[in-house]
Write a structure and sequence with these properties.
Elements lengths: L3 E4 L2 H10 L6 H21 L4 H7 L4 H28 L2 H7 L1 H12 L4 H28 L6 H28 L6 H7 L2 H14 L4 H7 L2 H12 L2 E4 L28 H21 L3 H9 L3 H21 L4 H4 L1 H22 L5 H17 L1 H11 L3 H32 L2 H8 L1 H12 L9 H14 L1
Parallel strand pairs: 1-2
Helix pairs in contact: 2-7, 2-8, 2-10, 4-5, 4-7, 4-20, 5-7, 6-7, 6-9, 6-10, 7-8, 7-19, 7-20, 8-15, 8-19, 11-12, 13-19, 13-20, 13-22, 14-15, 15-18, 17-18, 17-19, 17-21, 17-22, 18-19, 19-20
Length: 469
């Protein structure tokens, strides 16, 4: 420990974390946190592979299929409501251990579900795990990144989502050729337990508590101890005696969702609400049902559903990864505007001119829709909710964003099968164009961007002002 850090107060710890080099296990920590996003995405998209098979095996109506596919979203909604609070109350590390068990157990039981009721319960429990995991994973990523790298690392969640979605189809492809046929969805869902166990082991051995959470909820001494162990620097505490005392309950951040609607944060919360909900509606109405859409475009042979979905998700990998490396330069607001505009143009093109398009052109517009979505609102839905708030209430912010995502996903899950059953794909996508149109107009009116903002120092200044007042 040749490097030394002299700490006179909270600001010195914030400054160090904003500008420091990488922690000794920083890459592993960040990739392990992103591994949670992989599991979340895999579990959400894996059932989409067998949407047609599920309908046939359990004799489901369009409404019943909507109930089944949205059951995980209802669970995620419940998990997000409590997850955002618990990750701030109990800490990042404890929650990181607990939530993965939902994925392991529910995935294995779901794979052997004898009826739709058992499958629905398993998907609901799996959703609770997703709702709990997202706020803690994104908080971890934000708080183990320097100020300069936060945007890149947090926004990478979107690229990881599409990598997981693509993996779910690649995993099922050889099983399809082996003749699994009607049991494909069981293999897809059950395999989700494998990456969950791997990530659970990695979290056990590589994750530390967030020093920023400790600074706000335990005290400077604990934050200093974590920094010494994680960043391999010698921390010298030169603080006032009272600053070294453990934080009293009355001085901890206000862990109420009402904190997100105070004057300082309400505009940010509004932006997070709109982007999270609209991006989720457009993704889960299209992205989750990509196998169905691929079948409608390329043909009913199930192999086309798998191959078409892989190709469409590659557009998401490109957009979701590319945007992470330019997010801090362009800013979340501008990226949302670009993404919404692209998604809107693609949906309108197919909705108005599908009959005059070749199959390849239809596929290209669906792919460009996925690219525009993943480049803009898809990524920013959770980035805005995570990076617009300081560590003291970051779990609440991320949890609120995840709650709005699940509200949007429930609407999207129901929207597509019900509307598609009533009209054709062309009219369904035309109706869906209203979602990015609303998102675009809203973001044009909201003047907030978290890029380059030091929300930790801002929160500390508010704290000092309140004490002096």
């Amino acid at each position: 420990m040749s490097e030394k850090l002299v700490v006179h107060g909270k600001q010195d710890i914030i400054n160090f974390l904003n500008t420091c080099g990488r922690a000794k296990n920083a890459t592993i920590v960040l990739l392990t946190a992103l591994g949670g996003i992989f599991i979340d995405a895999y579990d959400f998209t894996s059932l989409g592979i067998g949407a047609v098979q599920l309908r046939e095996e359990f004799n489901l109506t369009a409404a019943q299929l909507g109930n089944l596919t949205s059951s995980m979203a209802f669970g995620a909604l419940l998990g997000a409501i409590f997850g955002g609070y618990l990750v701030d109350k109990l800490g990042r590390k404890k929650m990181f251990y607990a939530d993965l068990w939902f994925f392991v157990v529910s995935a294995l039981v779901a794979a052997f579900a004898p009826n739709v009721e058992i499958l629905m319960i398993c998907r609901f429990l799996m959703g609770i795990g997703v709702g709990l995991d997202f706020p803690v994973a994104l908080s971890y990523i934000a708080e183990f990144s320097s100020l300069k790298g936060k945007g890149k690392w947090v926004n990478l969640w979107q690229g990881m989502w599409y990598i997981a979605a693509t993996a779910s189809f690649l995993i099922i492809l050889p099983i399809y050729f082996l003749g699994a046929n009607e049991n494909l969805w069981r293999w897809a869902v059950g395999f989700g337990a494998v990456p969950a166990i791997v990530v659970l082991i990695m979290r056990k051995y590589f994750m530390e508590e967030s020093p920023l959470w400790a600074l706000n909820h335990v005290g400077i001494k604990e934050a200093a101890r974590i920094i010494e162990r994680t960043y391999e620097v010698k921390v010298i505490l030169d603080c006032k005696p009272e600053d070294l005392e453990p934080i009293q309950e009355s001085n901890k951040p206000n862990l109420s969702y009402g904190a997100l609607f105070t004057k300082r944060y309400r505009l940010r919360t509004l932006m997070a609400t709109i982007v999270s909900m609209t991006q989720s509606m457009e993704y889960f109405a299209v992205g989750f049902y990509l196998p169905v859409i691929a079948g409608l475009i390329f043909g009913k042979e199930f192999l086309w559903a798998i191959l078409g979905s892989i190709v469409f998700n590659l557009f998401g990998i490109v957009g979701g990864t590319w945007q992470a490396f330019i997010a801090d330069k362009l800013g979340s607001r501008r990226m949302c505007i670009i993404g919404y505009s692209t998604a809107l143009a693609c949906l309108l093109a197919i909705g108005l001119f599908k009959e005059d398009m070749s199959i390849m052109l239809q596929a290209l517009f669906i792919g460009m829709f996925i690219l525009g979505h993943s480049f803009g609102p898809g990524a920013q839905g959770m980035a805005v909710a995570t990076l617009s708030f300081p560590a003291g209430i970051r779990g609440l912010g991320s949890g609120w964003g995840q709650t709005m995502v699940r509200v949007g996903s429930i609407i999207g899950f129901y929207f597509f099968p019900l509307v598609l059953a009533a009209v054709d794909l062309q009219k369904t996508l035309l109706f869906l164009a209203l979602v990015p149109a609303f998102g675009l107009l809203s973001i044009l009116a909201i003047k907030w961007d978290h890029a380059g903002k030091d929300v930790e120092t801002e929160a500390l200044r508010d704290e000092i002002a309140n004490c002096n007042g």
